[in-house]
Amino acid sequence: MYASQPVTGMYRLDEEGNPMKLVVAVIKPFKLDDVREALADVGVQGITVTEVKGFGRQKGHTELYRGAEYVVDFLPKIKLEVAVPDDQLERVVEAITQSARTGKIGDGKIFVSSLEQVIRIRTGELDHDAL
């Protein structure tokens, strides 16, 4: 089954000859439901969600607890991972951007990378069929 799939350079291609992409987005936790709904509206069938901690330009913040001031370096975030065919990429990125944006610092980031191969474990389907 693997040998019959077309391969170009280092990236495997799906049946239509389009590369697949992995979209990783880091967003504010309270925006998760909005982003999930927006992705469902553009046809995304599955996402992986992970609770993570991190910081960017905002560099954390200072809080007061029982009279003592302390620095919170790592802020809670949500990391989404979505594998999509190349022709769906623009709609997915736009859906995440619009639904996760608050206009305030710390809204997050979206990372897009090429996805070489996808295999559905249960059926052995490859690439586009496995998405």
What do these coordinates show?
The structure is a single chain. This protein is an alpha+beta fold. Helix content is 20%, strand content 37%. It is built from three helices and eight strands, in the order βββαββββαβα. It is elongated and about 60 Å long. The two termini are 17 Å apart. The model is unreliable at 1-11 (pLDDT under 50).
Key structural traits:
131 residues, Alpha-Beta Plaits, 3 helices
Strand-helix topology:
Blueprint (H helix, E strand, L loop, with lengths): L6 E2 L2 E2 L7 E8 L4 H10 L6 E7 L6 E5 L2 E5 L2 E11 L3 H12 L7 E8 L11 H4 L1
Antiparallel strand pairs: 1-2, 3-7, 3-8, 4-7, 5-6
Shape: elongated
Beta percentage is 35-45%
Largest beta-sheet details: 4 strands, antiparallel
- The largest sheet has its strands arranged as 4-7-3-8
CATH class: Alpha Beta
Which structural class do the helices and strands define? alpha+beta
Distance between the termini: 17 Å
* Number of structurally distinct domains: 1
Fraction in helix: 10-25%
CATH-derived architecture:
2-Layer Sandwich
What's the Cα radius of gyration? 18 Å
Low-confidence segments: 1-11
Task: Provide the CATH topology.
Answer: Alpha-Beta Plaits
